[in-house]
Fold these 3 entries.
Entry 1:
Amino acid sequence: MNETTGSTATTGSRATRVLGLACLVGLGILGVFAFGISPEDARIEEVSGETVGQGDLVRIMYVHVPMAILSYAFLSLCAVGSAMVLWRRSRWWDHVAHGAGEIGTLFCGITLVTGMIWGRPTWGTWWEWGDVRLVTTLVLFLLFVGYLSLRRVPGDPELVARRAAVVALLGVLMIPIVNRSVEWWENRTLHQQSTLTEMRIEDWTLFTLMLGFLVFTLVGAWMLVHRFRVAWLEGELERSGLDAAISERRAEALSGVEAAIARPGGGAGPAREVP
Amino acid sequence: MFRDALLVAGKDLRIEWRSRVALGQVAPFALLVLVLFGFALDAERPALLRFAGGLFWVTVLLSLLLAVQRAYAIESADGAIDGLRRSGIEPASVFLGKTAAVSIQIAVLEVLLGIGIVVLYDARVESPVLLVTAGAAAAVGAAAAGTLYGALAAGTRARETILPILLLPVLAPVLIGATRAFGDALGATAVDGWAWTGLLAAFAALYVAFGTLAFGVLLEEW
């Protein structure tokens, strides 16, 4: 999937191709488990004998839960990278922070969308203001959309890196405050308390959830490696472009001087054609 | 450090006083927003009264965007920032001074808007002490965050558009906290306004601390 025409113009390597292949195979297997092998969520209530549970809706959790956890992980990685940028002024960490920020924001968006799709039949509404985690995640998502748009504003790469690093660190610092304020704001939460504890360990559901977590971790890692390499090459291109422009100007100036020296009798004569 | 901060704050406030931009443009803008909310909510007294706190704070945050942009526009005009940078004043003092100046402007604006909601929305103040404390804590917190993000945005080429998108999500806790505290102080919602004021104070402390530490990184850029 990384093949391009030139042998140098690719961000793939043998390792990332293997990783990418593992992602594809893993996604296929996850699909089989999520839609085929894992059962729908139905439990018989002991007292009333009624069937309770989320039915087929539980299957969206195989995407939603890993995405939510991974988005927090990637955004934390973005914060770590940002701290390293401020501390060491490292270009390497800046690319890591940028890539992790992009992937974390993407996963955060997928978390919100899958959560809404799940919430519509479960809660009867796309959006539930009373849910702390939902609202907090949206604010976090918007914070990092701001981070990414700040990164897109052109400027000196070093300044952009430091400025973005401050925003990312503040964004992560905000998580507990936003969470606390929203929690107090509504004083109640509709969100599923961790359902994992309710499940029996032999359940295929739990296995599929863990598989989802593993597969999406691989996908995120694969994206991060490529994003890092693209950013690195972009930086190199910018630099080589600058170097090329400088040497071109220098060559121009030198050839002008040489022409003036070679010219017999100074400015007059055939050298006039030069401009 | 604090003496230098006072110098910077005094300078900013003098410029604002003499140019009359804050008084002549930002304050009328804020009152205009209050009137627009009145139109939007169909001038329904009970609704206006119930949401007076929230409308008040949305108006303050929108005006804050203008005040922050203004605080940095005066620095970039005529290369004034170079003078500030070479004056030997520590970045932390610049941050504290600018935060103080913006806080005072926001506080003045809050007084005007307070009169506005009493006159236009028929709001009644039940707990003036809570109202003033929450208003002050929120003003300092919002001004500190605004000054910090304002410096971030001022260094970029897209400063007008990047500031709201960076600043407004960050101010969500201030909006929530201040709205709740005002709801209590105006007798519109039955909540513990003092707990919310505590959250506002924590927010202000965090941003003042972070800004004091991080402003050096940002000051060299614009």
Entry 2:
Amino acid sequence: MSEEKTTISRRGFLKGAAMGVMGGTILGMGVYSYSPWRKSYFPEVKRKLADIGVCKSVKVTNISETSWFENAVLMKDIKEAGGLLVNQYSYNWPPFGDGTGLGKGSYEKGIAKIKHLLPNNLEEAWAVTEKLSVSPQNAGGFAALIEIEELDGRKRKFLLDSGWSYKWMDECFKREGIDQMLKNKEIEAFIISHEHFDHFWGIPVVYKYDPTITTYYPQGFYPEGLQYLKDAGHKGKLVEVKSGELNRLIPGLATYNFPVPIICRVYGEQSIYVNVKDHGLVSITGCCHFGIIQFSETAFREIKYEKDQLYGIYGGLHISPFEDWDPKYDDLVLSLGKYGFQRIGCNHCTGILCAKKFIEAGYPVVKGTARNRSKDTAYLGNGDKIGYGTEV
Amino acid sequence: MERYGTGYLEERKLIPRWPQPIAAIVALGVTLAVFYASWWIFQDPRGWLRMYTPYVGYMYTRWWLIMLIWMVYIFNYWPFKRSWLENSHPLVKGAVLTAISVVILWVLIKGFFESVLGNFGIAYFNPERLMKLPRMTEFFALEYASLACLMFAAIASWLSPAWVVACEEVPWQNMSQPAKGISILVFTFFLSTLIYFMTMHSHMGILYYPWQYFTAIAPPYWEKFANTVSGNFHVAWIMCCTVTVWLVETIWERFPFKLIRTNWLRRVVAFFGIIAIAWAMHFFLYFAQELTWGPAIRGTRLINAPDWRWLHVGEMAVFFLVPALFLTFYCNNWPRRFSLPVNVFVRTVITLAAAIALYVFYYKTSHDYLGTQKGFMHEQQFPMIPTIWLINIWLVHHWFMDNWPAWKMVPKTAEEIAADHAAEKAQLADLRWNPALGWGLGAGALCGLAVYFIALSVLPWAYKNITVIPK
């Protein structure tokens, strides 16, 4: 009898315990998890304060921000090819067109048509690819010239990105004198922000003028991109910038690679920090897929900069590149103000709508001239310049 | 009187053709093959129709799930007669019922949302109307309209089954089909509409420039609490509700709510209890992300953005649903040998472990075979699409095809049905209050709290030491 009682009692206890464990866990989850007490679990942010040096000023020339000319044409291609997750090399856009039509291309088939012409016969290469590609007239590109003035007054030049269309980028390079600067080896390094078509596919135009230029690209390139770096005619030093590492180039200038997955099957983006004497940190980006606030937070965590001040922004901020919108973008518009940027030079994938929302919010957006096929004065257009620590 | 499929799922006996785990492995193999083939045809960005744009494919995936729930849980297979359900070959049943679900799906999306609601009510459900906005492209018009439809689907996929599982179909439980189905459908659809306006409409209202102050609450009322203006905050808890409903229905066998003997009280407690558990899950899964990736930063993008963190709460929740359904559908809700609370506890632990393993497996490998990209966060990727797509295939397989070919369906005899009812009564009778149960409950609750706080300590360590995303 007593043995039976013990058995029953043990069973009862186990049943209660099973219920209790689940109930107690759910109670903890519900009461504690979103309470202010949870913040005691967050580690304090330890600033590494890495020294990247300091420069006197930086000037940026917008070689081209019009990655494509008609958004409707680009989005029609993307829609019909299957959306924003489709591998960019399969769209059959130039220069990798093979004549098979939208969404049916590949790097291998496309490059086979033009490889023998790279990088010295780009006019013919573009003529070939125009006939075989989808929407070749819509291709533009993003590229910027960064001029750093060192504390002793010496000026050093870097090229950020190479754009997309060989034809358009060559025209833009000539317009801003980039072709001569490359020929004269005045530009000491070429920084590729990421593998996207509009930032990277124009590399033969760079190598046509300076095939030996040192090239920095972010870790995360797909095999097609790595092969294109070779096929485009590069003969110089090639440096892969590791994810999450600070890559110091000259005093005051460093790049940082963010390991982020990006639309059209791209991975990783490299951006630039410039520490300007008596002003603060300037962030220069290609597309900023990781977000400008993440970029700023990373700077705060990783590096030491003048006056502990986030001073300026230049480049695409990847908010509404296709003139699309999402409430999360409003989170950015509402939050950016508290970071205290004093000079915002945005364009490209920031989107005109976003630039207008920035202006409405009272942010110090530097307006453009809307020339050379740029569409709106709300942001810096093709051929426009901006200075940080210097007037332009 | 014709019963159609009322009670069909409870009154069928699924006899495995091979001993376990062979039957479960065969079922998994068959359904995964169908999953992968159909994924390639319909969703894969490298495949044929490439509906993973992502919202178009996501919308159809979510609504297809609801079609299956409507057909089986709300309409009890009406208008198909019981004899047809019992005597037709599973392949025939699967083909016919799946085809019907797809037709209803198409009529609902194109007919109701786009044509009726989009033309006579709210313009943003109709992509053609959105095209009239300045600078709008066809791609985003379709994406925005799909987003609105799928946000509605998220709510319906919680409320439709909840009215059956928690509220036990009241007050229409004694009606015959199709009147019962229509009543529940109309009511849950009405309720979904109300909740849609209170949770999702403001998201859509600020999607268009300028903010639609006079037609939607802008900025939304949840902004300060959720640290975002995005409706993903609501998507998260609503997804947790959907998952909790199905956990309660499957591995929990409607425990603990079925211990309440008073009908109205049981139904009310079950409905709101599911919401309470879902909110606990909602908060915890958000906190879990803060513990691994650090606090969210408003205004940033990708993995640190609060809007994505909330969305990921819903995504993580669905990972729990996958093993729970597998355990119920293909493992006969193993184990069954212990008391009900212990069975439920063991199944929950198994589900948790399997969900974590599946989560790690998914993020380690999905980019190699689903046409997606590596990384936890990608603005255009939603793990809910493949997970719900797989769940849909399992629902078709289990509800429409009786787990064919690894199982054979035989209707239970009246004696077997009576024995089931008696066993359930005995199981509940076994759970009477006694001091030992009380001591166990108290000790268990303390252990549960300890488990919770241990998990908080383990999570950052685990994330630091386990490489989920290869470089």
Entry 3:
Amino acid sequence: MDGDSTLSLVLFSGTDDKLNAAAILSVGAAAMGRPVHLFLQYWALDAFRTDRIARYHGSAPEAGPAGDALLRGSLEGPKHWSALLRQAKDVGDVRIHACALSMELFGITQADLDPLVDDVEGVAAFMGDAADGPITFI
Amino acid sequence: MTLTRMQPTRSIDARGMACPGPLLTLIGAIRQGQVGDVIEVLSSDAGSRTDIPAWVAKAKQELVGVVEEEGYARFMVRKTK
């Protein structure tokens, strides 16, 4: 399964619904043999902090109270986005990068982040990872 | 031999597992298996009906057959490489 195009996602939002959607896309792409690069900025980066990754991060505004309750009940164990991303890394080539500028903004280092995060990168390096392919912002 | 009577090398009951769990379980079993092995996966996840054939085609394995059962499907996949 070579010659496959890279899936490049910028994760900006830190709500669990968007992180879950991104994790599902990642695991599917990885299973299909596509390299995956995730670039974590702002609130998505914040959600990857070791001391915060397991807590509930809320839902997008359109979820409303009913949608929020539905989401809350759907994040246990293997259904949580962090578990899906671990599976994605097991099955394929998935790299997770923390945005250097967002790290600086929050005053954190890689030691504050879950081991799912591979490294800290600047935006130009991420553009290199994306290898001239499309980039999706979530 | 008909598909319903075919004996798989290994059978995995992934019923109740959420998407994409059954597919990932199949991928793991194919990777661990020997060429020629037939892996059977039972899945109640609706996504498997599209995902397992899509992966098998992409990974150039062989979909021996799909049998619809009551509330789940049985996928038979042969490891070709």
